[in-house]
Amino acid sequence: MKISVDHLQEKALTIQIDESADAFPVLSGMQADGSCVFSGPVKGQISAVREYDHVRVAGAVAVPVTLTCSRCLALYEKQIGANFTIFFRKGAPGLERDEDEVELNEQDLVSATYSGDEIDLTHEIEEQVAMEVPFKPLCSEACKGLCPTCGKDLNQGDCSCGRDEVNFKFSALKDFKVSR
Description:
Layout: E1 2-4, E2 13-19, H1 25-32, E3 37-38, E4 42-51, E5 54-68, E6 75-90, H2 106-109, E7 111-114, E8 118-120, H3 122-132
Parallel strand pairs: 6-7
Antiparallel strand pairs: 1-8, 2-4, 3-5, 4-5, 5-6
């Protein structure tokens, strides 16, 4: 997904995205390691505008994803999406300043550089999607999880195990007898 900076001289450019998740290396890596399964294409719209000494790229992307609940281990579908704005400046990436500490302003945090006459948006799109994938996915906030004794999904109903509250920190001392 590349934008030619020369085409931005006269007017704003709007691009529709409809790409498979396999077209993005980070997203295909997430599928390969089992973090999630992207069950549809990455869709969205991006607009690019030349402003003064930079190019402003704003857009929205969304993709359906299949996740595994971290409490009950059930698979569930979710639509994840992100809105973003990134400012691209012409320059070589990785230029270091001589200062030890540099205070970044808000625009520095959403800035990137490009070289040549094209801006490759592949990394920015996959980064926006990857940041929206939950670290500990939950099928619902009210998910009860699995029974620690028998493993039954407590969302389907209660199990017949004793529901005694066990403090696992001291469970090894439960049968400890002191003899004098």
